Amino acid sequence: MASVVPVKEKKLMDVKLGEPSSWILMQDFTPKGIAGAFQRGYYWYYKYVNVKKGGVAGISMVLVVYVLFNYCGCYKELKHERLRKYH
Q1: Which one of 1, 66, 71, 76 has the fewest beta carbons within 10 angstroms of its own beta carbon?
Q2: What are 53-80's pLDDT values in tens digits?
Q3: How many whole angstroms separate alpha carbon 59 and alpha carbon 43?
């Protein structure tokens, strides 16, 4: 029989579809908890990603994703502006 894990101790990937709101409310939002989350993220990055030799390519990829994300967000307004007649 599988052991039951409390919602608070589950990782985000293990949370079921109906549990995200309760999972978020159970997280620690104190300054110490937020600092711990950043520390875990920092250690995860250097354990799995750890770029040995950085360059312009990584920054440019992040910039391209940012621009595309903002373009998708503003597409409705841009489309409306494009179809407007100037006369």
Answers
A1: 1
A2: 777 887 888 899 999 999 888 888 877 7
A3: 20
Distance, in Å, from the CA atom of 66 to the CA atom of 39, rounded to the nearest integer, reads 24
User: How many whole angstroms separate alpha carbon 36 and alpha carbon 25?
Assistant: 17
The residues, any chain, with a CB within 8 Å of residue 5's CB and separated by 6 or more, are 14
pTM for this predicted structure: 0.46
3-class SS of residue 27: coil
Q: Where are the domains of the chain?
A: 7-76
pLDDT of residue 39: 93
User: By C-alpha distance, which of 43, 15, 42, 44 is closest to 27?
Assistant: 15
Q: Which amino acid belongs to residue 66?
A: Y
